[in-house]
Write a sequence for this structure.
């Protein structure tokens, strides 16, 4: 026996099922939750319920939002001629942190992955195509992850977009800034060689 | 702006306040919670509320329990002549995993720490003393952590127990099994030398 009482053991189990939470962290979290003031626990649970009921997909770009249309799609300051296509809402946060990209986004919510039974119709691809009809969009930047599935998804989508006469690009692959070439994997080096630029 | 909608940002903040959860883990957990089936979320919240309402201190040893008396204190198979005194209920789980100790436990729920305004009366010391009156207990093993505060707490408690004619011992300090002496800190080595045994 583990030495914990059933309701505590159950709470630890629940925490241990969350991603990247091991058994020891789950114990620490469960004990912490037992020691929190009731008001804080209520506020924690309320945040879960509020997020679950409020957060849904932007009707334009499929990013998570509390409103009908997300703050980026409804912003008057964004360049409406460019859409950056990402796998996950967290990727938008990564691009926004650069403060360099001022266009719009589109969230696919995944990549095509026959192994995991994720097909094109499971992703927000038709919502992307629906945005391209007005003639406002001049370029779509594919920013899926540099993985086999990410690349395959980018190629699949680019084939749907090109016939519409819209430019499709993808992020550059290469050596990340600050990397040590000695420890850079060979696939990255191959891509970096292929994509070399004249000085 | 971080790119997340307010209710999601709020949930991420709540997770990030939990111990050993950084901002990235908090994001991952919040997104995972959004993607969980409603029944699983309900069950998660229910576990928190159940643990909070059910778990309390054993009226004998102060370990966490769902019952009035914990499973160890109420077991007929434990040796009732020995009490191992620990700081935290998690320490009991560590000893139980050894399958070597069959006595009882007592949980202090902390150590004396004037810096943090934790005084003897904040710990479960009077509950421990109350168990020693019947004459059944022959030995108390102090198993607080090998820290300055843990040791001071052990010494404080041992001074209260010795006048009752009960043996008080503490865990051996020394080199942990499998350790590399080269990387063992000097305080541990000093204790290991002091505690050396003849072969």
């Amino acid at each position: 026996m583990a030495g914990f009482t059933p309701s505590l053991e159950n709470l630890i189990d629940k925490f241990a099922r969350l991603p990247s939470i091991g058994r020891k962290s789950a114990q620490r979290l469960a004990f912490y939750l037992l020691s929190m003031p009731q008001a804080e626990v209520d506020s924690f649970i309320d945040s879960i319920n509020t997020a679950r009921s409020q957060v849904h997909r932007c009707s334009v770009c499929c990013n998570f939002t509390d409103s009908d249309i997300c703050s980026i799609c409804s912003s008057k300051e964004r360049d409406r001629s460019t859409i950056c296509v990402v796998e996950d809402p967290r990727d938008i946060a990564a691009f926004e942190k650069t403060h360099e990209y001022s266009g719009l986004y589109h969230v696919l919510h995944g990549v095509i992955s026959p192994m995991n039974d994720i097909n094109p119709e499971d992703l927000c691809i038709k919502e992307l195509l629906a945005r391209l009809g007005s003639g406002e969009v001049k370029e779509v930047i594919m920013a899926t992850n540099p993985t086999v599935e990410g690349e395959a998804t980018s190629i699949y989508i680019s084939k749907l977009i090109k016939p519409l006469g819209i430019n499709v690009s993808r992020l550059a692959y290469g050596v990340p800034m600050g990397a040590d070439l000695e420890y850079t994997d060979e696939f990255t080096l191959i891509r970096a060689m292929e994509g070399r630029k004249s000085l």
Notes: The longest strand of chain B covers residues 79-86. The two ends of chain B are 67 Å apart (CA to CA). Chain B has two domains: 6-54, 78-172. Chain B has seven helices and six strands.
